[in-house]
Amino acid sequence: MDLHLASCRSRILLAITILCSKNVLARKASGMAASRYTFDLVHLQPCATPGNSMKYLNYSQAMSSDGVVSLNGMGDIGRTAQRLTDIAIVAYKCRDGVSANTCEYFTRFTNNGDGCRLISSSIVPWASLLGRSQPPIKCPLQTGWYVITNGTIDVDAYARMYGVSTNNDVWKITISIKDEKHSPFVCVDAAVRIMKYASRG
User: Which range is the signal sequence, renumbered to this chain (predicted)?
Assistant: First the structure.
């Protein structure tokens, strides 16, 4: 990942964290319920992309009293990769449900080059998810089962940054990763609902 880009994102996330912290403190002082963005995972499954090494994926989710969603899951990777190169995350905003008639393109994130550094970065929203994997998800990627226990995804800062609405929209997200040969390695389709959770904690 470009170091300048990573530095900019780090500063943005720091600014958002400070603003959110001030907002929470102000709400607590006034006796109002603090709120945060959280999510409900509608589905998570391997893509039908030819060459996808993710052969099986299963998960469960649970929400804590403060609105944090914990994910438990396991996936089977069918072949090795020495390096990860191209990573693309594409998001579509879908009205009420996921279908060709209700979804429209929203945004795209791409990383061409050092995908190994990106998946191990501490500033990405999925850092606390991949960090809970056994065996660790790092390069080189090995075949076999990967198990995640009580992993979390920080959607709050990014939802605020992008101005995500909390109506009945479903967000369709496709994550595709290529190996050192720039061949498809892992592809995952997800659908989530973003919501606000209020807590006096």
Answer: 1-26
